[in-house]
TrEMBL record:
Chain segments annotated as coiled-coil in the UniProt record: none
Protein species of origin: Raoultibacter timonensis
Protein name (record): Sugar ABC transporter substrate-binding protein
Cyclodeaminase/cyclohydrolase domain residues: 5-182
Amino acid sequence: MLDTTFIMDLASKAPTPGGGGASAYMGALATALGSMVGNLTVGKKRYESVEADTYIVLEKLADLRTRLIELVDEDARAFAPLAKAYGMPKATPDEQAAKDAAMQHALTGACEVPLDIMRSCARVIELCEFLAYNGSRMVLSDVGVAVVCAKAALNGASLNVFINAKDIADRERAEGYAGEADRLIGDSGALADKLYAYVLDEIR
């Protein structure tokens, strides 16, 4: 029986989990699909020449899966101080200053966690490249699904970076966050599109 706790929590009116947690969860699903492909590749005579490398990919995917699952909770924890800052009073100059300071501190964490999600998903896409060209052809379509999931997670997490970075007063820091997100989307997104096109061409 599928454990739907996370999905039901996501569907509720609670602010967390939200888009960031969903992106991390989607990234974890991508690692799981990649691992399935790897596990169906090792032990097969046809793929014995890439078996050692496939085990390395499986180990890396397992590490990324653990990290992305952690990031589901880390995203919720990063949002908590931001939500608290939004609710702080601002009736006096001192209250406004305290609120502004709390907001700026919280916005940093609210950018760094989704960036970590993006970095992890970028690595998932890179590992899928090996699986697309070397994994079992019987499950090539699953590599394509993994790539789609990882790209969706990458793009989804970027939205949390952008929405929070725009309110950071330190514009150099904010532009650094947004710039890294743009680079990850550009580089890893392009690789994901290439791999998806390859899989589609091979299976149709």
